[in-house]
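Re: your question about 2-C-methyl-D-erythritol 4-phosphate cytidylyltransferase

S., sorry for the slow reply, the queue was backed up all week. Below is exactly what I fed in.
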Amino acid sequence: MIALVAAAGRGTRLGARVPKAFVTLRDRSLVERSALAMVNSAVVDEIIVLVSPDMAAFAADLLRTRGVLDNGEVPVRLVHGGGERADSVWAGLQAITDDDAVVLIHDAARALTPPGMIARVAHAVLAGAPAAVPVLPVADTIKEVDDARQTVVGTPDRSRLRAVQTPQGFDLARLRRANEAYFAAADPGFTATDDASLMEWHGVPVTCVQGDPMAFKVTTPIDMMLARTITDEAEPTIFEVPSD
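Result:
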């Protein structure tokens, strides 16, 4: 099983001086924490960290100095990502030589993801699901809004809505075919903001597994404040959601 850790974005909403994946959360950067979570999940055989070309040398030095590249358990290598998330993931998929692999795709910004949740996603794909995503119920009422008029046009049934997290797991061959079709299409009709949406577009069923509140995405300064508060806790694993 191969994990791709997407760390090529700029993350401008966080307002940091460096790309978001390299912002330090207590003693480690977000990308370090995400990569080590993959190691600790005990289901990953290789990790590919996707970084922008201009950050590649810095990332290599950081991950080597911090013992991530040479962690003694799982091989880690860096691959240049692209301008958009879908471009980065596609570059990572093309760097995988094992056509029969199962792949996990994870956002470096979800740096506190528990290893147990990673394993749940992996096991769902190993059990036969072509695609699997971790999900949580939506707490807020969601409104569909007309952007031009700034008026509400609908209220979806909240009981049918889920917030989707990462890592997302896939059969590599089917994910590659979906990517090939997406990038070959003159107008795919949507922008792939996550890999599961691309699989849905390609007609592949996506299985849901239990997510975890700790797998929240660090996007804004408030998210970072929450993450720093949690990492001060003596036992942050109290947030782990038991599997069914």
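The chain has one domain: 2-239. The longest strand covers residues 131-137.

Happy to talk it through on Thursday.
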